[in-house]
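Narrative of activities, Objective 1.

The group set out to show that a structural description can be obtained from nothing but a protein's sequence at a throughput compatible with the screening campaign. Below is one input-output pair from the validation batch, recorded exactly as produced.
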Amino acid sequence: MNVGSTRAGLNMDAIGLMGRTVKDIAAATAQSDSIGCAKLVVFCNAVEDNPFMAGAFHGASESDCVVNVGVSGPGVVLRAVEEAGDVDFGALTAVIRGTAFKITRAGELVGRAAAARLGIPFGIIDLSLAPTPAERDSVARILEAIGLEGVGTHGSTAALALLNDAVKKGGAMASSYVGGLSGAFIPLSEDAGMIEAAERGTLTIDKLEAMTSVCSVGLDMIAVPGDTPAETLSAIMADEAAIGMINRKTTAVRIIPVAGKGVGDAVNFGGLLGRAPIIPVHTQSSARFIARGGRIPSPLQALIN
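Output recorded for this entry:
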């Protein structure tokens, strides 16, 4: 669901509705640790050619039928960073950019071959470092290889900014058909290093929010207490959407208030969705803020128009 954009501002009625909807989905799938919430993403500035689930779109600017390909590769980038050693940031950026170039070229070749066999037009290649629960298939491990003792510590946002920028530039050099989100994802439950940092308490929802200002998406696969009010969920969505609106970038929230569980508990969804410790949210109410409704206009609207 797209609830805002840089041009239109934020639809606070929609954001309020989505907080209640997430709570309803959590209750409806309570016996499966509220897994239904993992299948809904709330966006600001959603892109129409995003091939990644659960946030894939097929928008008005797309062909009736098209092959858009998403390619990941955190493990490949991690190995390249480790082999580069203690070079300066300029050299390190070049290494990551070159690796992203190779992954993108390979992904486009596969995508075009698949499109040709299916007789469907090829659309775009989206190179996004989308981690899985496998140990080395982790964006957090890349940030640690860059020089952090643990993700979430000071410097994490800067390291992620470097990584995201280098991946985007490498992809852009490799193909004229780069689209989608193209960058680095930080889904908490799907990244072994992120999970460990959250369990240590060094990676909090506030730090994750700060990191989303420089990554490709936003607060992704975050498990929070089941008794979190709908208005708090909406306020989290509003914060993330505001980052996207102001910075002219895509941001999103995929949050899971796990029914019957609280801080100190954990959930294990299995497969690519992974496992997640339930992390705390702020307890001060945002109910009056969300109840206002209406629209938060974009401060950039006058400049855009």
